[in-house]
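[job 4471] stage=fold_predict status=RUNNING
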Amino acid sequence: MRPSGRRGAGGTVGTVKSALATYLDRLTLALSSAGADGKIPELSRLSGARDEHIGVALCSLDGEITSSGSDHRFPVQSISKAFAYGAAIDLHGMEYVNSIVDEEPTGEEFSAVSLDSHTKKPKNPLVNIGAIRTHAMLGSAQAERTERLRDILDAAAGRPLPLHRATLDAELTTADRNLALAYMLRAAGSMTEDAAQVVTGYLEGCSVLTSVEELSVMAATLASGGTNPLTGEKVFSRVAARKVLSVMLTCGMYDNAGDWVSDVGLPAKSGVAGGIIACLPARVGVASYAPQLDAHGNSVRGTLFFERFSTDYVLHMLDGVEQKDLEERAQELMDVGTHP
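[job 4471] inference complete, writing structure tokens
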């Protein structure tokens, strides 16, 4: 286990053993020793994913990071969709983006071949067909679109995120379904950009490497209204950040979004490499990493972590109670013996 605390804004790095760090250590240990259903996709094996990997991290809005578990780097995958959506809103305005991509849950798997039969729009920007159409809005040429998305991901993480070439190459080799979605958009008159170029740029955004700590900073950037808590950079407008969180709440966990809202109650986005981000607006960004996936494409142990964490800290947005300071709540849990 690797507990740590880091103050990003001041640039100091150091180890801090706190009640919150102890709580995270014990919870990740409990989840590590529990039997995990689900399987690791072969694509994730390319970046070194292993059964024992599990990591969690929290980033407060003043830049304090507390983390535990694996620091393995893994592809961001579909988590990038949320940040592409925010970038499109700030580039074109919300009215234009809404005219191109809807914001409704689908009840379908993330790679479903599906367009609204009347509007010819993708149902939301967090399923593959919606993410492909959103990516096409990021510029007039492939290089411009890809650069804009990479810049947004780097700015949200507070540092450059490297491309994992082996993941991108494998994605491109098996891109037939995504290409079919892009050509479906063109056939419906919903996209005019070159299908192969748009899919290539979209998949590059999915193939950048991140860590669970960097994901927590990305989540905190959204939770803060669009400002990176480590660098102070304004990554998104407040309107774009709010819109992204709204769609994450209703659509971020694919066809398991209803259960997630009921059980966890936080805006969230998952990726098939095993990462999940969740945001408590104006409070904290949270991330988990564990590569075994359930039938919905969400991390099994990551989901278990968020269910327990949300319950222990009373974070559900609809609980109707004022959330306590995370460190104080961790100490309370330890004092009464209900910590993991």
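[job 4471] summary: The two ends are 15 Å apart (CA to CA).
[job 4471] exit 0
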